[in-house]
Amino acid sequence: MDTHDPSRAESAPPPPSFGAESGRLRDFPLAELLWQFHCDARSGCLRLRKGALEKTLWLSGGVPVFARSNEAGDRLTDRLLARGLLTRAQYDQAQDLLARSTGKRIGEVLLENGLIRERELNEALGEQILRMIESMFSWTEGSWSFEPGPSADRITLDRSTAAILMSAARHRIPLRRLWDAIGDHHQLPRLDHEHRSDDGRAELTASLMLEPSESAWLARLDGSRSLAELLDDFDVDEHELLALLYTLRLLGHLQLELGGVPALAFQR
């Protein structure tokens, strides 16, 4: 059931021009920032800072290819230990070896000392990078900056930028922020013509890695029912629907119409 009061939404400053190479996350959230860089096929380093914390995402042609973080919970060895790919003794050995190595990455140290297989390392590293990227979407405060240039490190991730954004909306973006982005609950969600067919909906389901319950919404986004009416259905998962609409709209696959007139540009 819809409990959002659009009149309570705070007004937001207009998003910065993308001639700028830095800004505040409160003015331009990471999801919108990352999708704009993706559409512009930007290559370089996107750096987020919040106090002493720093997370860095490398893009190649607008596609995330690597990430780093100085947050303790983002350490690769901790993830390997949690997955059972390292024993506690191997974990302690890896930390000791890393402390005595100069200029080497933890992955290199693990491989050189036979503590992990290359295939296992690559799988774990890809998973860890995705976890780091997704954790960035929780930040609403802090600053961002972008430095153009190539990435020295590169990992092929198992999901598209669009699927990363969908996962972030699903798991990391709070309901209130989704409502602020969507706006008026009387709007009529209408999927773009290209994706209204069975094949079009199947393509969206695959590219966004939608869950079955999320995919089931696509056929209902035909502009005939308002968001409030959709939410009035029995046992609706409000966050699930809002996350899907947010992502589809951000990607340009959805219009939100009010009184038959398309709503204004993406708002927060």
In short:
With about 270 residues, the protein is α+β, with helices and mostly antiparallel strands.
Description:
By secondary structure, the chain is an alpha+beta fold. The chain has 2 domains: 19-158, no CATH class; 164-262, no CATH class. The chain has helices at 30-39, 76-82, 88-100, 106-112, 118-136, 161-171, 175-182, 198-208, 212-215, 227-231, 238-250, and strands at 22-24, 44-50, 53-60, 63-69, 143-148, 188-191, 254-258, 261-262. The chain has a 5-stranded antiparallel beta sheet with strand order 1-5-2-3-4, with helices on one face. A 3-stranded antiparallel beta sheet has the order 6-7-8, with helices on one face. Strand 7 (254-258) and strand 8 (261-262) form a beta hairpin. Helix 2 runs antiparallel to helix 3 (88-100) and helix 7 packs across helix 11 (238-250). The two termini are 21 Å apart. Residues 1-17 and 263-268 have low confidence and may be disordered.
Descriptive key words:
2 domains, PatA-like_N, disordered N terminus, T2SS_E_N_sf, alpha+beta, single chain, DUF4388 domain-containing protein
Give the overall shape, derived from the CA principal axes. elongated
Low-confidence stretches: 1-17, 263-268
Let me know the average pLDDT: 85
Run of helices and strands:
EHEEEHHHHEHHEHHHHEE
Head-to-tail CA distance between termini: 21 Å
Number of domains: 2
Question: In total, how many beta strands?
Answer: 8
Beta-strand content bin: 15-25%
Helix and strand composition category: alpha+beta
Radius of gyration: 21 Å
